[in-house]
Design a protein that fits this description.
Helix content is 36%, strand content 18%. The chain has 258 residues and is α+β, with helices and mostly antiparallel strands. It starts with a helix and ends with a strand. It contains six helices and nine strands, in the order ααβββαββββααβαβ. Strands 1, 2, 3, 4, 5, 6, 7, 8 and 9 form a nine-stranded antiparallel beta sheet that branches.
């Protein structure tokens, strides 16, 4: 009887030992599986790659909102943010700024409640009273980059152009919107004639701050003034001749912000 009990106890001890080893092996297998799955998830999200992209900043000054330039004039200074959503115009403008292309050029066309225009290379050495606006025609045009989210509110930077059917932009001439306010009825008529639809925010901007909505989706908007808005009005109200050229030259210099 005692012998039988010893044999039974031995069998029970062996069974417990065997089950314990099996359980430990299962726990180890489960832990390995979870770690592997976590590794695959991290790889799928590509977290390391994303971090490296954030750290890889361009050589020019940039923020999450885009590149910024300082436009210095005889009438004051403006800081302008260039839109990332219009990369062709942004990159072309940056290239010209880095080359010093705009230094000493004039705002050659100014119209109150409308816009101020500059960037004609001929204006650097133009004689008093000379009509300007055709310079840069020998440069390659920039393809239009129309965006419904970018509209002609007061203070935006946009590209001038001639009457080419593609509505491609001048490679160098630009304008900054002064504009005026509009009513709901006026905006309704523009929506019908231009076959566009304004958001509530865009409507409110045109009704309170103003702009030039009749130019929307016809000329490429590629930036906006962030500081120095008062300079736009000061330039637009300058005394001028019959060609809207200021009687006293208003020159500019543009530099990248660092």
């Amino acid at each position: 009887m005692t012998k039988k009990i010893s044999i039974i106890n031995a069998l029970l001890f062996f069974s417990v030992f065997l089950l314990s080893n099996i359980a430990q092996a299962q726990v180890k297998k489960t832990s390995t599986t979870k770690a592997t799955t976590h590794g695959k998830t991290s790889s799928t999200k590509k977290i390391p790659a994303k971090a490296s992209v954030i750290k890889a900043k361009p050589t020019l000054h940039a923020t999450s909102d885009g590149y910024r330039v300082k436009l210095i004039t005889d009438s004051g200074t403006m800081v302008i943010r260039l839109y990332d959503s219009t990369p062709l115009h942004r990159d072309n403008f940056i290239k010209l700024v880095k080359q010093g292309f705009y230094d000493s050029l004039m705002f050659h066309r100014v119209i109150p409640s409308f816009m101020i225009q500059g960037g004609d290379p001929v204006s650097k050495s133009a004689a008093p009273g000379m009509q300007l606006g055709n310079g840069g025609d020998d440069m390659t045009r920039i393809p239009a980059e129309f965006r419904s989210s970018l509209y002609h509110k007061k203070g935006v930077l946009a590209a001038a152009r001639d009457d080419n059917p593609e509505k491609a932009s001048s490679a160098c001439q630009f304008y900054i919107v002064d504009g005026k306010t509009f009513t709901d009825d006026q905006l309704n008529n523009l929506e019908l004639s231009k076959r566009i639809k304004y958001t509530e925010a865009q409507r409110n901007m045109y009704k309170t701050i103003g702009g030039t909505p009749h130019l929307d989706m016809a000329y490429t908007v590629f930036g906006e003034v962030e500081s120095g808005m008062e300079v736009i009005e000061k330039i637009s109200h300058a005394a001028k001749d019959n060609n809207n050229r200021p009687l006293t030259d208003i020159r500019m210099r543009i530099e990248m912000l660092k």
